[in-house]
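User: Hi! I have a protein structure encoded as tokens and I'd like to know what sequence might fold into it. I'm fairly new to this, so please keep things simple.
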């Protein structure tokens, strides 16, 4: 958890430590220092308003780590919510929140992560789920966690049209059905990365329905 409010740090710890191993950091600098020195966490709870680098700056740096992130901010701050989701946050929770909601969201996002020790291959795209690496045409693609999961889902269902609602349910979860802009942004980034790699695979838009990896 990256949160500078000591009272909220206590809430996080008290709520989660019975089921998870939790560590709190008051700013981005201490968090990234620990991240480089220890094992990667399974999930990060990230406040928006922080001293020094704000939550969005930290989220941008976290993209290369492929770690799921739940953003936390003041209730009703829709601009921050949309910005965080478009930048690759996996979920969003508003303050004040209930402890049961917090636990549920943490568990839900952990369940959404792809199973380890699997390899999926389609054409020249290969996913190593254990190492969390995707290679296209021999090039390692630098993807966010959400991009990785989205491309993985399309790969698992290659050459089959996937409706937008089905994609949201399997990659984002039910809460984000209707966030069409978020899906479009991620598809655009994946197309760009596949093109740069020279991959023979491509993501087709099926107008009025969804997308298909071919």
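Assistant: Happy to help. Inverse folding works backwards from shape to sequence: for each of the 214 positions I chose a residue that suits the local structure. Here it is:
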């Amino acid at each position: 958890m990256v949160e500078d409010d000591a009272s909220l740090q206590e809430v996080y710890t008290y709520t989660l430590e019975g089921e998870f191993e939790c560590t709190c950091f008051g700013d981005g600098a201490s968090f990234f220092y620990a991240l480089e020195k220890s094992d990667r966490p399974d999930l990060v709870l990230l406040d928006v308003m922080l001293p020094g680098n704000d939550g969005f700056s930290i989220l941008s740096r976290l993209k290369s780590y492929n770690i799921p992130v739940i953003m936390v901010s003041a209730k009703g701050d829709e601009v921050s919510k949309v910005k965080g989701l478009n930048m690759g946050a996996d979920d969003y929770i508003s303050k004040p929140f209930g402890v049961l909601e917090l636990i549920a969201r943490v568990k839900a996002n952990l369940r959404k992560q792809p199973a380890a020790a699997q390899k999926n291959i389609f054409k020249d795209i290969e996913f190593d789920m254990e190492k969390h690496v995707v290679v296209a045409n021999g090039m390692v693609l630098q993807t966010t966690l959400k991009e990785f999961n989205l491309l993985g889902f399309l790969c698992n269902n290659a050459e089959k049209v996937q409706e937008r609602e089905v994609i949201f349910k399997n990659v984002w979860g039910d809460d984000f059905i209707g966030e069409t802009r978020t899906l479009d942004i991620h598809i655009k980034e994946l197309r760009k990365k596949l093109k740069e790699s020279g991959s023979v695979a491509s993501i087709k838009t099926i107008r009025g329905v969804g997308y298909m990896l071919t």
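A useful reference point when you look it over: DSSP finds eight helices and ten strands in the chain. Feel free to ask if any position seems puzzling.
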